[in-house]
Design brief:
This protein is an alpha/beta fold. The protein contains 10 helices and 12 strands. The strands form 2 sheets. The chain has a 6-stranded mixed beta sheet. Strands 9-8-7-10-11-12 form a 6-stranded parallel beta sheet, with helices on both faces. α1 packs antiparallel against α10. The structure holds NADP nicotinamide-adenine-dinucleotide phosphate (NAP). NADP nicotinamide-adenine-dinucleotide phosphate binds next to α4, α5 and α9.
């Protein structure tokens, strides 16, 4: 019996146990996925415990995605470039870090058939960096609009993107010229707010909202009204979980069943 964990604070609302425990059951693997509340000050002690041979690996969430880096023995190219780790594999006590949000964004865009050449990313935090890394690999030109310009500039020092201060004027200038808009801010989690309304969007665009709760965010409602292609954040959530599962087990997870379970849970809680 091996255990897998999500560490961070808070972790109680996570959908990862639902996804991974379902996949372990379906593949008849003697594994379980549990939540571990870990604050930044408790990280060194938690990492020591997570090196145990009974632990197969763990996911990392806020506020530990960057702080975990210095505790790892190896870090993947993506995680190094993004500067954040969300998945760790424990191989014989050695800890290897990955950023599966990159693969999650890539899988969601591929599934939707989106080939972006000019993208606007809203936000400059961890999710935005994963999206920009992925878009750069797809050779898209990326403009990062962020409330705090200094943070967008820091992102652009490590990844190929043009940093711009988020403002109504900047939105009016850059959104209509993009073929893909990615929301990587928490705006919309309240079910009411959006940074972009339908007047700036059009039919030929795609909109990916990384916010997954609610399933249909205000931004996606605006995008739908404008006739744009809508990609909900749940696509990235399940795809990043599936990639973590592959890293940990070497097996292909039942992605469609994971998606059904997560969507049912989100519909039930909305
Ligand atoms: P983060 O590192 O805290 O970054 C948040 C970003 O949002 C920052 O750039 C921040 O701007 C901006 N922001 C926050 N509130 C804002 C507001 N009211 N108006 C404009 N900008 C605002 O967070 P993160 O980890 O990148 O996560 C961002 C979102 O993506 C969260 O909702 C998270 O749940 C979601 N996410 C989803 C998935 C998925 O699988 N679907 C994966 C990862 C993350 P400042 O720099 O100015 O503070």
């Amino acid at each position: 019996m091996k255990a897998f964990y999500l560490i961070g604070s808070p972790v109680s609302h996570s959908l990862s146990p639902l996804m991974h425990n379902l996949a372990f059951r379906k593949l008849k693997l003697p594994y379980s996925y549990k939540l571990m509340e870990v604050k930044a000050s408790q990280l060194p002690e938690a990492v020591k415990a997570l090196r145990s041979p009974s632990v197969g690996g763990f996911n990392v969430t806020m506020p530990l995605k960057e702080a975990i880096l210095e505790h790892l023995d190896e870090v993947s190219r993506e995680a190094e470039a993004v500067g954040a780790v969300n998945t760790v594999a424990n191989v014989g006590g050695k800890l290897a870090g990955y950023n599966t949000d990159v693969a999650g964004v890539k899988a969601a865009l591929e599934k939707a058939g989106v080939k972006a050449s000019r993208a606007v990313v809203l936000g400059a935090g961890g999710a935005a960096k994963a999206a920009v890394y992925c878009l750069a690999e797809l050779r898209a030109e990326v403009i990062v609009l962020n409330r705090t310009l200094a943070r967008a500039r820091r992102l652009a020092e490590r990844l190929p993107a043009t940093p711009v201060k988020l403002s109504r004027r900047a939105l009016r200038e850059h959104i209509p010229r993009a073929d893909l808009v990615v929301n990587a801010t928490p705006v919309g989690m309240d079910g009411r707010s959006t940074l972009v309304d339908r007047s700036l969007l059009r039919r030929q665009q795609a909109v990916l909202d990384l916010v997954y709760r609610p399933l249909k965010t205000p931004l996606l409602r605006e995008a739908e009204a404008a006739g744009a292609k809508c990609i909900p954040g749940v696509e990235v959530l399940v795809a990043q979980g599936a990639e973590a599962f592959r890293i940990w087990t070497g097996f292909e997870p039942p992605v469609d069943e994971m998606m059904k379970a997560v969507v049912a849970e989100l519909e039930g809680s909305s």
